[in-house]
Design a protein that fits this description.
The chain is an all-alpha fold and about 600 residues long. The chain has a domain of about 150 residues: Leucine-rich Repeat Variant, CATH 1.25.10.10. It has 37 helices and two strands. The longest helix has 19 residues. Pfam families: Arm.
Length: about 600
């Protein structure tokens, strides 16, 4: 038998082996292996060079391996193959992508070959007649652009978006991989997401969904692309909703493939960041809610985590539809997942419970707390993971809405919840944890005189030796939101309609709190400075008046001040829309009470 035929057959066989993910990794770092690879790459046999390219694509993973290949001149040879046969072009593009991925140094070496000829060749290959060549050249350019300052031209990126969208129409592997390349291009890039919206990519992707049966990989890719396009840009979300494909996404939640179920959850998570869609009730229909709740029981932890993230957003509902979640058994399963050893599941479960309490009625909050129990909530507040602590404290913040009846809930079981909140505010290293804790205490302080005294005792323990109370430390914090939370807690403690208001003001003055508030007139944060200026003026004037006049003056100033600082909930939601629907806050009545829903 002719030796050439044997070599050819062996090369084809090995190439097929190295195209499998299960193939052993080839060690480039061994000198003999590298020499053998270069020998293959310089062969005149097309199947042999294709084998070399397959080995590079399969085995080049680390930066060290990328550098070794570059130093050996592999990139120069791969660039030469870009002008070879169709098979050599595609193999070379695949290998170049592996060598330059996430590596600015290897990108610079590639671009420097023959004064930029390599980059020009790859750009030209975007126009190739072969769909796979166009796809691979797009992938190469995306990776080059991500790792360097090259390929940043607006025109090239627009072409990339258009070509990848067109490639979705191709049959087979090319059409399956195109949406994943699009996801890589637009991830965390708001400008490109806007550009994609301007060329109707969302509409085109939705049209593909409506075509009927789509294989699982392509369906996963399209859902992930839609998720990324809708993650930040409200106009894309609106375009998605107007395309009437929500029922298809709902069906994908029940798909047999784990990856498709995860992608469907991810797309719902992005779409549900729209306050407008939540207001309209588009995402609280049973066709969405019930499959999501069912996925909380999924055998895959990846699906559970994705479903929880979607649930976190969907439950931030502003109408009377929270009963759907409660009646579906959602709360019980969220409580179970909040006990998980998987930190991602635990954090997202507590986050979902927190958002479920946002704007919930009294019965709904009681149901959540009865399932969760005071002891478990206190345990979550003191969890070893700061992010769990933050979400648990925000949950408490939403549970106590300023009404005496709801505030009473944190005094049950010997005030175990209040004690846990106080401990975290005093000792937590994370400002985010302290912020949520102080807002929770501020809500408790909006209750009756007993509640105010409990918070006062927590913030200013009756210990004469305490020269620097931690409330003073919070007011001096470098975090402006923490300072704001602390001062509004003081505002609620000194509400003039309560019998012991004057006594609390005196205690605050003796502890140096009033002096600190006066000093904060010149706060570096303009919003904080404005708030503290008004507050310090009220308090300082109150303290200089006789008791009866003090109450009358403070009460009149309080109402003016409250109207100045706290808009109705709808206005807060409008501000949330401006900030792309990431946070939703509100206040009620004349007394500042803060509740918070936050999107994933």
């Amino acid at each position: 038998m002719c030796p050439c035929i044997v070599v050819d057959a062996g090369a084809r066989s090995l190439r097929m082996i190295f195209q499998s993910k299960l193939a052993p990794k080839y060690d480039f770092l061994q000198e003999n292996n590298l020499k053998f690879l270069l020998l293959l790459l310089n062969s005149k046999n097309e199947n042999v060079t294709d084998l070399a390219a397959s080995i590079i694509k399969h085995s080049c993973v680390s930066r060290e391996e990328q550098k070794v290949l570059c130093d050996a001149g592999v990139l120069q040879r791969l660039v030469c193959l870009l002008e070879g046969s169709l098979c050599q072009r595609d193999s070379s593009l695949d290998s170049i992508a592996a060598v330059v991925k996430n590596n600015s140094e290897t990108v610079s070496q590639l671009v420097g070959i023959k004064n930029g000829i390599a980059l020009n060749l790859i750009v030209e290959l975007m126009k190739d007649r072969c769909p796979r060549t166009r796809l691979l050249s797009c992938v190469c350019l995306i990776l080059i652009g991500q790792a360097s300052c090259y390929v940043q031209e607006h025109e090239i990126k627009t072409k990339l978006i258009l070509i990848l969208t067109e490639l979705l129409e191709e049959h087979g592997q090319v059409g399956d991989e195109a949406p994943f390349a699009l996801v890589t291009l637009i991830t965390d890039n708001e400008d490109l997401q806007k550009q994609a919206h301007s060329v109707n990519v969302v509409e085109k992707l939705c049209n593909f969904l409506r075509q009927g049966h789509i294989n699982r990989k392509r369906l996963q890719g399209i859902l992930l692309a839609l998720s990324e396009l809708c993650s930040r840009w409200e106009k894309s979300r609106n375009q998605f909703m107007s395309s009437m494909v929500l029922n298809i996404v709902s069906d994908a939640l029940k798909h047999e493939c784990v990856d498709v179920r995860v992608a469907a959850c991810t797309s719902i998570s992005s779409i549900s960041r729209s306050v407008k869609n939540l207001f309209a009730g588009h995402l609280t229909d049973e066709s969405i809610v019930l499959p999501l709740v069912q996925l909380l029981h999924d055998s895959s932890s990846r699906v559970q985590a994705a479903a929880l993230k979607a649930m976190c957003n969907v439950v931030v509902d502003f109408k009377d539809k929270k009963t759907i979640f409660i009646q579906s058994g959602c709360v019980k399963q969220l409580v179970q997942l909040s006990k998980s050893m998987d930190s991602a599941l635990k954090i997202n479960a507590v986050w979902a419970l927190r958002n479920l309490t946002f704007h919930a009625d009294r019965a709904g909050r009681e149901h959540i707390l009865s399932e969760l129990t005071e002891a478990q909530l206190a345990g979550l507040i003191c969890d070893s993971e700061p992010r769990v602590q933050e979400q648990a404290l925000a949950l408490v913040r939403n549970l106590v809405d300023g009404c005496s009846e709801t505030i009473e809930s944190i005094f049950r079981e010997n005030a175990v919840i209040l004690d846990a909140v106080t401990r975290q505010v005093q000792h937590a290293a994370s400002p985010e944890v302290c912020i949520q804790g102080m807002f929770a205490l501020g809500n408790v302080a909006a209750g009756n005189d007993f509640h105010k005294e409990a918070v006062m005792t927590s913030l200013l323990p009756p210990r004469k030796e305490e020269l620097n109370p931690f409330l003073l430390k919070l007011l001096r914090s470098s975090d402006s939101l923490l300072r704001t939370a602390a001062v509004w807690c003081v505002v609620n403690l000194t509400y003039p309609d309560c019998p012991n208001s004057s006594a609390r003001v005196s205690r605050l003055r003796d502890a140096g709190i009033i002096s600190q508030l006066k000093a904060m007139v010149n706060d570096i944060c303009l919003d904080v400075k404005s708030s503290f200026l008004r507050l310090s003026l009220v308090l300082s004037h109150v303290l200089s008046l006789p008791p009866l006049e003090r109450i009358r003056y403070a009460h009149s100033r309080w109402k003016n001040m409250a109207r100045c600082f706290f808009a109705p909930c709808d206005a807060c939601l409008n501000r949330a829309l401006v900030s792309q629907g990431q946070r939703v806050e509100g206040s009620t009545g004349d007394r500042p009470f803060f509740f918070l829903g936050e999107f994933r």
